[in-house]
Amino acid sequence: MSGEFPVIQSAHSLVAKHVTKERWDRVKDIETKTCGFTIAKACACAIEFDNQHCGIYAGDWDSYKDFAPVFDPLIQEYHGILPSATHTSDMDSNKIKGNVASDVPVHSCRIRVGRSIDGFGLSPGITKEQRVGVESLMKKAFANLTGDLAGSYFPLTGMNEAVRQQLVDDHFLFVSGDRNLIAAGMERDWPEGRGIFHNEKKTFLIWVNEEDQLRIISMQMGGDVRGVFERLAKGIKAVGDSVKQESGKDFCLDAKYGYIHSCPTNLGTGMRASVHVDLPGWTQHGVAKLQARCEELHLQPRGTRGESGGQTGFTYDISNKHRLGYSEVELVQKMIDGVNTLWKEDKEFQKKYFGDFPFIASQHSLVAKHVTKEKWDALKNIKTKTSGFTLAKAIACAVQFNNQH
Questions:
Q1: 23 tagged catalytic
Q2: Which residue among 46, 95, 248, 303 has the highest number of C-beta atoms inside a 10 angstrom radius?
Q3: If you ran DSSP here, which 8-state letter would residue 202 be given?
Q4: Dist CA 222 CA 215 (whole Å)
Q5: The whole model's pTM is what?
Q6: Does the annotation count 26 as an active-site position?
Q7: What are phi and psi for residue 251, nearest 5 degrees?
Q8: Is 77 a catalytic residue?
Q9: What is the pLDDT along the chain (405 residues), one digit of tens a residue?
Q10: DSSP state of 20
Q11: Which of 4, 22, 161, 307 is the catalytic position?
């Protein structure tokens, strides 16, 4: 039972707009069948904090159905879909055309999705028994993975310090303490029933019982987006088949909202396909203009931190903007094509702003530090007497590759 209509602190959130007193009164006495979730629990973040944009979570698949008077209009506005819309999933990597071009200075690629197993609650509402049940089922599923997907599962409960530190160093570990997740009920019984799986090469990773029951991630260095998507698709199918074999259960797939996630912003594909890429020309042209261009290409740019050198100033995390209303193949294709377009345009901006001074891909190298534009202009036309060697030839490795010291 959710009681009387609350004060919603996040006055500019989607909750404040769509959770009216009339709608609240329609659903306030409902408790979902799977885990007894209520509309008050769903809206907890928007009620407690004043900084939420969305502000609502689902406690189980039932929440989206039982609290539809609230969820439906909110989801339609956020994702820009019609009430009549349906969602189609497509993980066939063979349909991807081309790849990120070989000359694009991409450091790494990462694609993640979420999945939820039918019959268990989602993280905000899941019971202690259900959470442990999900973990138990996943341990069996992981044991069935073979080939390049085979690896190890590391439960958070009882994790020894050496393992914990290695997972921190690999940037794999998720931790407690996020106030939104706490308010939403996602850190109850921490850390029981939670853990991390990764394959031997650390290119296929699954978080168990974090914000979603499963966060499935494929990643690697370089720009082979197609290869990363291919591994993700293979991994999801292998995990799904194993769960089905062990329990008879499927992933929650809704005809209207696609794959079910705890946060409605992730409904549909739940996919974020991203690359870390250098865009010095666009940076010089203007970050606001880059953001506007990404909007046109249905992409989302974020700043990112380099390995040890911190923010380089022109390395961006570029990802697909949409989740619902497009298939996985369509979103990965948009990202590939968009990144290629941005780099093509970037090279034109480099000519405009930097002249013939080359872009040095190895941004943390000694070349990047010591070959300034001033030194380049002073030395660029010199050919050595012995073999006609040039400065351009001398620094070719640092210009072409992003891994030089």
A1: no
A2: 46
A3: S
A4: 22
A5: 0.90
A6: no
A7: -70, 145
A8: no
A9: 667 899 999 999 999 999 999 999 999 999 999 999 999 999 999 999 999 999 999 999 999 999 999 999 999 999 999 999 999 999 999 999 999 999 999 999 999 999 999 999 999 999 999 999 999 999 999 999 999 999 999 999 999 989 989 988 888 888 888 999 999 999 999 999 999 999 999 999 999 999 999 999 999 999 999 999 999 999 999 999 999 999 999 999 999 999 999 999 999 999 999 999 999 999 999 999 999 999 999 999 988 653 333 345 789 999 999 999 999 999 999 999 999 999 999 999 999 998 888 888 887 899 989 998 889 888 889 999 999 999 989 998 988 887 898
A10: -
A11: 307
User: Which one of the listed residues 35, 109, 263, 294 is annotated catalytic?
Assistant: 263
Catalytic pick among 265, 283, 312, 315: 265
**Which residue's entry shows tokens 């010199």?**
382
Task: Please give the single-letter amino acid code of residue 134.
Answer: V
Q: What is the DSSP letter of 9?
A: S
Distance CA 315, CA 54 (A): 28
DSSP code of residue 219: E
141: tokens are 């599923």
Radius of gyration of the chain (CA): 24
What are the respective helix, strand and coil percentages of the chain, to the nearest 5? 40, 15, 45
Question: Is residue 46 within 8 Å of residue 23, measured between CB atoms?
Answer: no
Residue of 112, 131, 231, 323 marked active site: 112
Q: Which of 115, 215, 226, 231 is catalytic?
A: 215
DSSP letters spanning 246-281: HHS--B-EETTTEE--SSGGG-BT--EEEEEEE-HH
Catalytic residue among 135, 187, 211, 328: 211
Interatomic CA distance for residues 96 and 99, integer angstroms: 8
Phi, psi of 14 (to 5 degrees): -65, -30
Please state, in angstroms and as integers, the Cα–Cα distance from residue 53 to each residue in 14, 226, 299, following that order: 6, 33, 19
* Residue 307 annotated as catalytic: yes
> Which of 87, 115, 90, 40 has the alpha carbon at shortest distance from 268?
87
Q: What are 277's two structure tokens?
A: 């890429």
Q: Catalytic: 110?
A: no
230 is annotated as an active-site residue: no
Give 201-204's long-range contacts (Cβ < 8 A, gap of 24+).
201/148, 202/170, 202/172, 203/148, 203/228, 203/231, 204/148, 204/149, 204/151, 204/231, 204/232, 204/235
One of 179, 200, 302, 384 is an active-site residue; which one?
A: 302
Confirm whether 45 is a catalytic residue: no
